Amino acid sequence: MSPATPAPESGGAALELLVHGVGGATPQDMLDDPRTVRVTGDRTAAVYRRAEDTEAEDQPERYGARPIPEAYCWSNLTSGDGTRALWLLLLPFMVANLAHWMRPPAQGRPRLVRLYGVLVRLVALTLTVLLTAAACEVALDLTAWQCAGTAACADTYSWLGFLSPVRDGWWSPPGRRLALAALVPTALVGLLWYLSNRTWSAYEAQRPPTGYDAPVAEPGADTETADRGDGGPGPGGIRPALGRPGFWFGRRLVARLRAAHTAAGFLTVAAALATATARHDATAPGAGAGAVIGPTLQVAVAAFLVLVVLVVCRRGRSERRLDLSVERALVSWLPGASLALLLLTALYAGWSRPGWTSGGALPGNAAFGTLTVVQGGLVVALGVVALLLQRPGRDPRTALRGLGGPAVAMLACALAGVMSGGVAQRVADWLDGPGAAHGGPRIAPPVLLSWQASVIPVLLLLLLAPAALLAVRTVLAGRRLHATVEADYDTSGEGDPVRTGQIASGRARAALTDSAPVLVGVVSGATLLLGAASVAGAWASGNVPGRAFDGAHPAVASLASATQALGSWMIGFGFLLFVTWGRRAYKDASARRTIGILWDVGTFWPRAAHPFAPPCYAERAVPDLTWRMSSWTRSTGGRLVISGHSQGSVLAAAAVWQLPPATRGRVALLTYGSPLERLYGRWFPAYFGPDALRALNRTVSCWSNLYRATDPIGGPVRVPADDGRPAVDAPVLPDPVAYGRTREHPLPEPILGHSDYQADPAFAHRRSALLDQLLPAMPRQRDPHETADQGSSGRSSG
Q: Which residue intervals make up region (Disordered) (predicted)?
């Protein structure tokens, strides 16, 4: 650590709180010392110091020339053993949750803001229904109805033999087979409920600091629903969204959505059972009471689904205050009543019905087409609302001109469709072998899933064009940067072409990050059009399974069948690759750095749209940092610089927003390799847009940002000088620090890109300058009533 401003004698210690970024870091690496001590926290997230710095506050004379280094390690919140990779299966839910936070800023337009939130929550609800419907398709239709009802298929797979109608066992009737198979999607919904409830308790049930300052009034904002407020700063000193007391504690909404989505899953299974059984009873002679009970159950399921939609639409997030309440009656009654209705439906389906045989596909194949149309309509409506929310002074750097939310919502629907359809298609191909070999009936998924599989190769071909264009543009940009690199290092025309090319290529590749909106827009638009084509193709073929391309020209049908088979195999291979890559990312640090930024961005935001999304680590990390900064400055009266790298800079900024005003005056913010503007500001303009970042600069005592042109993640925050404050961005750091060999650098210096910012001499200089700008230290005062669990002592044991 480099020298800092001497600390005053009376409790004048200065603290540097280091927060690491993506990829994780050990406290030993962060503090550059193998001997570290946990000061406060647990194995999941904790604050560490060097062993020699444990009693630093009692020895101010030793730290007059440097701040006390302290490291906050949060990597265990987003990493773990290989089983954590299964969270990647929840990727569509996470992406839908991201769409909630991508809305444009809309000061003074609460109704449109609320409508935006409602539409995103409805899109998220359709994803739960789609996932459950896909599980029902695999378990009920393909396995229990089609395969178990075909002698050739059931005899081939011994584990299905007891369901075969040939053996005439107790489970052989179609209704009982369906009731038994319904356990699979029911268990899946129950597992999602359990994981959501468990992860909330383990990761997000952390209360932010309270009692330091009074709540800030927010004129025009609804007392319950933050969807009516704005994420950016407003007139009259209205607190930005990330600084609101309840922003990082969404217990009430998550519990409500968890109940609604769990109920929706159970009701989807009940609808599949009731529809199949009621269709038979409506046409079978002598059905008796079944002809009445079936339609009654269907009406009850429909009524409950309407209730679920109303629950999802009724309330958004509560952010103005720390809302500790939970609607326990709703949370327990809605899933419980839906499960009870499912059990009644299973009993109804299990009645003995002589003469009922399974043939063809289960009714309800059109449900997938209906879901796809509903999702497309919701995404289009979301796009219209996003356009209406645009302000005349929209920031030109905003991703996709403010349509990032609708585009990402479309991607969530596409991911869910590909994953669910891919599993159904692969299971159908696997089960279809025996039946096809013996001339039996084909086992096929709904026609729409076959069409969706056939458009995947087309989508990949469409992506080749922008990918090739970006590759060519990167190569050309690297060549054009040769002159700029030599001018920056003042080579005087004696530069090394190889060295110049390496640096120029590094800068050109780093600029690829700014092209992400183009790729997302192309993928989203192509997905919307190809999805519409799939629905049209399925309806044109009459939604008859196994006859997806009937009626088409033989050449077209042959090509379509080939692309469908290729797409099906690509889905299966991609699914396995996806899980394998995710598992490796959680176990291999280098792999994690590759995709870590995308995953950490996705799980940074609270679960506001989908309760089954992976847990939000920031709801643990932000309160941790806020508590630590507040308690240390209150107990010591010293100065503090919170130093965040990469994603750590986002956590640091969010924690500073949560600080009470008196504490902010004693805190400086140092960010480096930060995606605050380059990623968050462009994609989440309502929360990290230009107005919000300028307000953060005015809020914190002082702020400095370091970045490199070779960094693919970090960049400038673009906050200009304001009200006597200097511009936040430091001059761009040279990377490498030396072009060739010099006396100070006798060996070639590496191109660091996103790493090792602290190795640059500018880091220590900027940190010292920030400490110089902080208020002088106050006399150290201790409150005898402060308790250890308030984090009052900087020397609390680990």
A: 211-240, 774-798
Q: Which amino acid is at 192?
A: L
* CA pair distance 647, 656, nearest whole angstrom: 14
Tokens 């959680």 correspond to what residue? 586
The predicted model scores a pTM of: 0.88
Cα–Cα distances (Å) from 317 to 195, 240, 440, 455, 549, in that order, read 21, 15, 54, 38, 46
Cα–Cα dist 92/755, whole Å:
30
pLDDT at 23 exceeding the cut of 90: no
Q: Are 190 and 181 in contact (CB under 8 A)?
A: no
| Secondary structure (3-state) at 643 | strand
Whole-angstrom distance, CA of residue 335 vs CA of residue 312? 13
> Is there a contact between 536 and 468 (Cβ–Cβ < 8 Å)?
no
Residues 6 or more apart whose Cβ sits within 8 Å of residue 611: 196, 254, 257, 258, 261
Which range scores top for mean pLDDT: 192-201, 344-353, 584-593, 775-784?
344-353
Q: Which residue has the tokens 């002598």?
A: 286
- Cα separation of 512 and 236, whole Å? 40
Instruction: Kindly report which listed range (208-212, 599-603, 656-660) carries the lowest average pLDDT score.
Output: 208-212
Q: Which two tokens stand for residue 255?
A: 């519990």
In 10 A of CB 166, how many CB atoms? Answer: 11
SS3 string of 1-46?
CCCCCCCCCCCCCEEEEEECCCCCCCHHHHHCCCCEEEEEECCCCE
Q: Which residue reads 């800030």 in tokens?
A: 216
How far apart CA 90 and CA 612 sit, in angstroms, is 7
Q: Is 361 helix (H, G, I), strand (E, B) or coil?
A: coil
Instruction: Please tell me the number of Cα atoms within 13 Å of 302 on its side-chain side.
Output: 8
Strand order in the sheet with 702-706: 36-41, 46-50, 68-73, 14-19, 639-645, 667-672, 702-706
At residue 146's C-alpha, the angle toward residues 140 and 148, to 5°, is 85
For 286, residues 6+ apart whose C-beta sits below 8 A from its C-beta are none
Nearest to 682 by CA among 306, 344, 492, 407: 407
Under a CB-based contact definition with an 8 Å cutoff, are residues 674 and 705 in contact? yes
| Cβ-contact 400, 102 below 8 angstroms | no
In angstroms, the CA 417 to CA 528 distance is: 12
Provide the strand spans (E) within 206-305.
none
d(CA 30, CA 19): 9
DSSP collapsed to 3 states, 193-208? HHHHHHHHHHHHCCCC
- Respond yes or no on whether the N-terminal peptide bond of residue 736 is cis (omega within 30° of 0): yes
Go through the chain and tell me how many residues it has.
798
Structure-block tokens of residue 500: 């110049």
Q: How many Å apart are CA 349 and CA 277, to the nearest integer?
A: 6
- Rg of the chain, C-alpha, whole Å: 29
Minimum mean pLDDT among 174-188, 398-412, 436-450, 476-490: which range?
436-450
